[in-house]
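Hi all, long-time lurker, first post. I run a small reading group and we've been trying to get comfortable going from sequence to structure in the token notation. Rather than ask abstract questions, I figured I'd post a concrete chain and ask someone more experienced to write out its structure so we can walk through it together at our next meeting. Sequence below, copied exactly:
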Amino acid sequence: MANFRRVLVANRGEIAVRIIRTCRSMGIETVAVYSDFDRHALHARLADEAVHIGASTPSESYLNSSAILQAARRSGADAIHPGYGFLSENANFAAQCEQAGVAFIGPRSEVIRSLGLKEEGRKLAQAAGVPVVPTPRENEFPVLIKASAGGGGRGMRIVRTPGELREALEAGRSEAERAFGDGTLLMERYVEGARHVEIQIFGDHHGNIVHLFERDCSIQRRHQKIIEESPSPALTPELRRRMGEAAVALARSIGYTNAGTIEFLLAPTGEFYFIEVNTRIQVEHPVTEMVTGFDLVRLQIEVAQGKELPEELSRGAVRQSGHAMEVRLYAEEPANNFLPATGTLHVWQPPSGMDGLRVDSGVEQGNEIGVYYDPMLAKVIVHATDRENAIRKLAYALKQFAVQGVETNREFLIAVLEHPEFREGRAHTGFQIPASAEEGNNEDSRREDDTLFANVVAAYIEQTEHRHRAVLPSIPPRYRNNPYRSGTVRLEIGGREFLGHTHNPGMRLHVLPSGEEMVELELDGVCRRFHIHRHGEEYYVRSSFAQRKVTRLPRYPRREGAGDHETANAPMPGKVLRIVVSTGQKVKPGDPLIVLEAMKMEQTIKTTIEGVVGTILVKPGDIVAPGQMLVEIDATEDANEHASSSTSGSN
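-- Answer (accepted) --
Happy to help. Here is the structure in token form:
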């Protein structure tokens, strides 16, 4: 049995921070690796040592197996924890670790290889007596296309008609090739109204294989999970027993060791089907930790050291306790088809002070959110006595989460948690809620709130500008030799202009120890507090009921030019993959123009007008900024709309 002295964490972000903290609690030294982009990242600072593994682009650094193994040798690490994503399910990397005499904290390379392709996993499941999702018959629709070599929604497409099939296959194959180096696709019957339920498994090197119950991951966007919970509201005790036994049977048939997850589709009929095995720790593993009390990363390390699973696990004495739920807070724009967002985290204050609350994150205030990595900012996890209390606590925690400077899905998550279909436990993988849903989902209420925010910021501007303005002592405050004084400030909130009133006699301004300023305002006998963080002419304001970015506009609006081109613009930062039109080509609404890649996702930019391609302003390989013009289109006479960017086919 080995005792690790030093573990290299071959990952970044919140999972790297999570592993480093568990190692520290076990008295194990840690080594971080970092790309050029992550030179000052939290995970690189938390580790005892950090090694630079730069590559041609930051996104490739954490896939550079030779650089990571060299970092392990240089730092004297005797084990590598791959986290999830990147090299965590790369059988070749696991084999290289084994050959180099460095422990790989995960399954053996041959097990990863045998389960690395979904088609092989299906065969192993069938051999173990586990039902699999049926293969569609000829001309049977809808079908689900997915990458055989990986998950995370990469390469996945739902195809409902024969006419969609060819484009879906081409886009899915291209995306899978870039994400996993293997464009092999798998086609399955699409099960309508199904739930996504997975079983956490664990095996040691002494023949013990167990499961630690289920996680329900049915709430998804772009085929990627955003809310997970345990226990599943859809499982009866009998169904839970059968699914657990099926997962253990499959794991035992292949001699599985360390952590893994076996994913199932649960049909409305009560039948369940094997989907795949994830041979690694999962993003949503804190949910299982909350209901079982086990630190799964600690278990991973102990199993890799040769220890047996704890006795209460191996004899099946563990029970689910209470209810746990997790949401993934992403930098993305729900109202814009959940496209990833970039920018600077000007405000970052996770909630605290709640029993049963946990926030896993790898970012800090002031961090830049770029285009190279997955846009997840944090995982917010709660544990409560029952599901109803877990939902209430999680929604409250999100409302208290101060995150500004980058667009996020915070309000969308709150809307999902408060949706009746979710609260009643009826939501499945096809669950949809308008992506523009916000607090109260009421336009009049939103405008009322925005008006209040505008008045608060206007009064704040008036007070702070007066406070910093140099005046003669003999001149009364706010004295003007100009008889006219408007008493308003032009402001913009959410694309709409407001005139904020500067006169709020009941307002009090405080400077907090953090340097932030807080405005107290009494309204109808209730004292409300507004925290304000200023960045240039942008004011990031938050209260107990909402968060807004308020932008101060010039006093006199500038005239807009009359010669605007009709263009297709980049909806987000990314890399140009392909240009699918040529100069002089006729296009009509819905025709693809350019394919972009950003944060591991593929976006097809389509035209919304009928016209002729005039000028193509980019080339393959270019990195583009949000709003950057990509293609100019000369509209035909009957085209009344300007070209704008729209997206499709992203996962």
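A couple of things your group might point at:
The domain at 567-635 is CATH 2.40.50.100 (OB fold (Dihydrolipoamide Acetyltransferase, E2P)).
Residues 559-565, 639-651 have pLDDT under 50 and may be disordered.
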